[in-house]
Amino acid sequence: MRRMTARPANTHQARLLRLLRDGGPNSRAQLGDQIDLSRSKLAVEVDRLLETGLVVADGLAASRGGRRSHNIRLAPGLRFLGVDIGATSIDVAVTNAELEVLGHLNHPMDVREGPVAVFEQVLAMAAKLRASGLAEGFDGAGIGVPGPVRFPEGVPVAPPIMPGWDGFPVREALSQELGCPVMVDNDVNLMALGEQHAGVARSVGDFLCVKIGTGIGCGIVVGGEVYRGTTGSAGDIGHIQVEPDGRACACGNRGCLEAHFSGAALARDAEDAARAGRSPELAARLDGAGKLTAVDVAAAAAAGDPTALDLIREGGNKVGQVIAGLVSFFNPGLVVIGGGVTGLGHNLLASVRTQVYRQSLPLATGNLPIVLGELGPVAGVTGAARLISDHLFSPA
Amino acid sequence: MRRMTARPANTHQARLLRLLRDGGPNSRAQLGDQIDLSRSKLAVEVDRLLETGLVVADGLAASRGGRRSHNIRLAPGLRFLGVDIGATSIDVAVTNAELEVLGHLNHPMDVREGPVAVFEQVLAMAAKLRASGLAEGFDGAGIGVPGPVRFPEGVPVAPPIMPGWDGFPVREALSQELGCPVMVDNDVNLMALGEQHAGVARSVGDFLCVKIGTGIGCGIVVGGEVYRGTTGSAGDIGHIQVEPDGRACACGNRGCLEAHFSGAALARDAEDAARAGRSPELAARLDGAGKLTAVDVAAAAAAGDPTALDLIREGGNKVGQVIAGLVSFFNPGLVVIGGGVTGLGHNLLASVRTQVYRQSLPLATGNLPIVLGELGPVAGVTGAARLISDHLFSPA
DNA sequence: CATCTTTGTCCTGAGTGTGGAGAAAGTTGG
DNA sequence: CCAACTTTCTCCACACTCAGGACAAAGATG
Prior knowledge:
Two copies of one chain form a homodimer.
Chain A: H1 11-23, H2 28-34, H3 39-52, E1 55-60, E2 70-74, E3 80-85, E4 89-95, E5 101-108, H4 115-131, E6 140-145, E7 149-150, E8 155-156, H5 170-178, E9 182-186, H6 187-198, E10 207-212, E11 216-222, E12 225-226, H7 257-260, H8 263-275, H9 280-285, H10 294-302, H11 306-330, E13 335-338, H12 345-359, H13 362-365, E14 370-372, H14 378-392
Parallel strand pairs in A: 3-6, 6-9, 10-13, 13-14
Antiparallel strand pairs in A: 1-2, 3-4, 4-5, 7-8, 10-11, 11-12
Chain A binds a DNA duplex through helix 3.
């Protein structure tokens, strides 16, 4: 199969490609209703796109009371690769041009093993997806990493939890290996993009997407666009202080949110409680190495264990306290909570909501939904595909 | 004098008007260097603007080694009115089309007296400025109010410190009275616009502007544009909790930033200290009613009074704590501190900086200037003029 | 005074985009 | 089965935008 070579020649073509991506196949007439162009001009641009091969006309749609329309759709062979590198695992997926996930793989891996080892794994997973017949090659790839990124260059900068990646040319290296364009971003931003494209945040212009996994981060969307900040570290809320003289944090400070609540902190607290005999439910779930995860806490809570419930409530209060501040400051139209701890579900959500609704101003909370992400592990890879498609579907 | 009737007919004309506003008089050739247009096209658009009377060609500039250029400038008779309504005083200013302040009045007044009384005062001040010969009429007016605003309609919504203004049609009423277009915004946003236009924030795309006066608010600029949030309450940081079981706040919660530090809280603390005999410097400054202001505290601190210095340091710590969180979240390129307490100067700034640099991530603070606003009371009115000129200098 | 530089104007030609006429293809009702 | 109406799509004429070059105007320089 020939890979995507052309790019839209102007903004009209770019807009058409995005309409087809987000709205699926469509007739010329329907496209005309959604874009501010005359039918004649539209036809010209569609014809040019057909010539490039980026879109195809296949078959006729059912009549709507008159002449049947030609179905215009994005080239069915286009394939994007979405990669989401977490602290403890890797997600890789293939999508079509409409960003529907055709295949998805997950592999546990510690990001601290460094870029070379991780890349090897990513490429192996991509090869596996290709071998399964889902793609003959990739037209573009998006990749998320758990740390700040200098976005234009696609290079991680001073990432606390993956020091070995500092300055590693992720974009260039992956582009070389895959032979296609690549865009790199923070994993939290990609989750936000994913939920915006296919999840709970559709049609919301300004929202926050709080991802609670091994660490805590927050994707910020302003006017439909991800906001990355001056140095690419916007949304790094894990080290906001929630307790004046709280626990020591890996960053060197005390009382950071991440030190009090996150996947890692929760697991540690649960293990302590189990060992101290404060919770038989949790103790029963200890594995051979004496370890627990957020999943265990969720299970214990579901079984009614009061200690587990307390841990979740306490954590939700801490996160809610920070989110309350962010809501007052940012006045979003929606707050999405996702990441590994989504499994804690409505117990977590309830205490977050309580804090936010109590502490923030009524005007800001009046009509503010606080919800769990609906895409789970697909959010990151969908966002990654969205990132590269946004790039490729812009004028060259 | 005839008032501004025409509006730019297209984006080119709008951009030209803004170039002339921000860069002052200019020749066609120099404008051509700053705008992406051919000389011929540019000449056409300039001619059209000359026809409308929005710009004029007056005289020839000195030669730069060849034919002398015609000076193109915005119509010299254009006048904008900038109004900044604070909690305890009103600022009104007249500017020319380049937003230079030609005249400026200040009048103490309690905003709680309600919109009717305040409007009367504002109109009297505007009339006074007009009578002094600075303007024969106004081509537009911008007005800032100390509370959230539904921006498109120009109506305050649920403003805590000025309940009588809720839903009052500020834009429509003022437009009627003045007979010119009016735009309304939060006073903090206007301060940010002012500092961006003529102050410390020139050429910074993303920054925060913290205004500490009677209350505390924060202007948010993203990509050069003010961000107002979903309901217009973005930046309302006065009620972020800084102390878990802190002081009772007027909003009904405990431990709000505003309850611990703001012009009002500082004055109260200083009065308490003076009465309790903990500070002779402050006691000496008590007025007949036993009242003090931030200015008194600044003076006492300048005289070396340890209690006053402590109050400032403590307050700076509280504000710094909140700003540190915002810096982590928003990753701005600059933080500006302004408002009534600017008089506390470098004592305040020092403790804010200490908190922020200690608590926020190095990547976010690495190259982050935290500075005092440089426009003082002119910031608000300049921002107001900028607001309305941005509106009028956009395609109709 | 000839030459060079800078500024501003005019003209042509390529491209962009609109709106209408009308053909193509289909549905509906008598 | 046919006439009338709809919807979709194509084609064409015309207006407008815009770039780039030729050229005129006005001054500096030697």
